[in-house]
Amino acid sequence: MKPRFTTRAMLVLMTLFALFFWYHINWIQQRQAAIASGLAQPGSASNLPAPAAPGLLWMFGEPGRSFIAIEQSSGKDQIESLKALFPESHVMLYTGVSPVKALEQ
Predict the structure, then answer these.
(1) Which residues of 9-21 are buried (b: 16+ CB within 10 A; e: fewer)?
(2) For a surface tag, which of 52, 55, 61, 93 has the fewest beta carbons within 10 Å of its beta carbon?
(3) How many domains does the chain have?
(4) Residue ranges making up the domain that contains 52
(5) Tens digit of each residue's pLDDT, the chain (105 residues)
């Protein structure tokens, strides 16, 4: 019985799957690095439902964030890149003490 696809087609398909997984895993790593470095401080509000993670990140176990707090002095480019990393989140710009840390106290 002859296969219905060639080895080349299988290679192309596997490459597309690998690129798909790489893109999403890289996005998750960037989000987690931003949180770990303190640039983006995630929080949740009891009056806001927890949003789903954007795209297909939920397939990889990444949770959605209700809001993120970003220090206003971070710079316009960095704030825009953090907004792109967390498109599902409401963004709170702050100066001084982080509102997330203030709520935890």
Answers:
(1) eeeeeeeeeeeee
(2) 61
(3) 1
(4) 22-104
(5) 777 888 899 999 999 999 999 999 999 999 999 999 988 988 877 776 778 899 899 999 999 998 899 988 888 999 999 999 999 998 888 887 766 665 555
